[in-house]
Protein 1
Amino acid sequence: MNSTHSGAPVADGKRHIFLDALRGFALLGVCLANYPEFSLYTFQPDTVAATLPGAGIDRITKFAQYLLIDGKFYTLFSLLFGIGFSIIIANAASRGANGFRIFYHRMAILALIGFAHLMLLWSGDILLLYAVLGMLLPLFRRMTDRAILTVAAVLLLIPIAVDGFCAATGVNLSAFPYAQWWRYAAAYGITEDNFGTWLRDAHTYREVFQFLIQGAWERMYEFIDGNRYFKVMGLFLIGFVVGRHKIYADLAAHRALLVKVAVWGCAIGIPLSFFYAYSGVASHPWGSVAHTALYTVSVYPLGFAYAALLGLFCIGRSNLVIWRWFAAPGRMALTNYIGQSVIGIFLFYGIGLGLGASMGLTQTELVAVGVFALEMLLSRAWLSYFRFGPLEWVWRMLTYGKILPLLKEK
């Protein structure tokens, strides 16, 4: 493969363990957020969920999930994506390379990976959306910090206005993908009655693929109904500003800022997250607009606080072994994200062990912790011999248009 770009990925010696560890921490949260869907628990009616093992404690677990997990970790991943964009541009500029061409090439390849993940493995993919929205980031590169943060704040607030408009006018922006979702579901015999057990009872990949086709339309419906594109883009821009100032590279110098974000994030995010969690478990008793507003004022502050608190803990303690354990899966985030889907299919679908629809929420979350622990072990073992994770290696080679060495030099 001949080189088509001048440039190269970030060298090991220039990596920041805090960023890798934060990415690993976010990966744990994503696993905890996603596995209730892999186990099919999310799709079970309340009457069925009440009969599953641990149903009593599951009510507490569900509340805790809304309180501490829901939205917070995809917030971290989105921030990290924006930071990564700033690193790619700075890395390319230092070599005199065309950073934007590299970035667009990288996003195009990520879009293909995301599309394959969406259509072949799991309907809950986020990579395709990240790649498409990521292509807009260069448009903001010449804006001031204040202008970027203003745009980000507007984007994060827009979902409240959109939901308010739809509630007031009766307009349904997601009507088309919703109709297509159930059109394709009906074509394959997927109904509300068997929706929660279809994948458990699927004994061929053909049946799984049928579910994935209608699931792609369901995912589009979720993105539009949840105004996800506004949220993700807003977080990208905040991450870009963080990356522009390289706050991650000298945490001690930014201690005062980290303390401010941690204190205000917790002071605002924790109490309001209790209201958000109640709204979630009680099926939005104050309405969808109020639920969206509670999401906005609770999820983002607490997600930012998570990052700030970890940054403060890292100051003077970057040599602790816990950072290396979290950094290993963080360095292989793409491989481990896709790997979580593969493991979830093997554990819960009928083409694997078929454990879906048989576990309560608490059991499912314990399985998710176990899966992440396995990924930590495998990632550390892999990186003892190799420079990149397997998918990261392929992604980088396609991005830079040249063969990159995989084995570490002895």
Protein 2
Amino acid sequence: MSDTINLIIDGKQISVPPSTTILAAAREAGIEIPTICFHEATTSNALCRICVVEVEGSRVLVPSCVAHVSEGMKVQTQSDRVTRSRRTILEMLESTVDLSDAPEIQTMIAEYKADGERFPQAKSRVSTPIDDNPMYLRDYAKCILCWRCVQVCAEDAQYTYAINFSSRGYDTQISTFYEVPMPESTCVFCGQCVAVCPTGALKPKRQWLLELGHTPDEIMDLTRSERRNRRRRVEVPSNDQA
């Protein structure tokens, strides 16, 4: 087997090792392909489809984060078909999800001239923020189901398995098993899920309180009091246990 694969991306001749993804090959050549669900620390699952490219001979657009290069492959990353697909995906996201805390996606929306009003009948994702722990807030109205948090909580990093997909179809969202409060789940509050979230659906509690206008001293008092109260609820036995 050859040690390198030769292909052409946007007219540029590129040689990369076998098993390289199209996304990695493009980036190595200085060609940027936009991504949302992709993250260096998590397994790629091609969920968002923003990274699609046009491969000569392929009937459909190809997700570059999971598709591997092949000898003689010819790829276009900015064809009309690719651009139209990305624009449509961004328009669908903007019409249903609160992207106010997703600056990278907002930049893509501007770059691709996506029209957030294209789908006026779209049903927005509505969810009351879940404030059930002293470390972070869960606001699933901002969640795009990229799966990063689920993966990093599982085999990709923590092996905690505190969260996963819940429900089906439009009602799908991220949740704890049996929808228990986060402190009652297997969560160890490592913060890795918050770190990989691209939309602010998971937000540090102190950042959220700052945005609400609380001073740093007030935040210290609020979070300290919350931790103390939760500790008491765990330590004090109920009447059934006494």
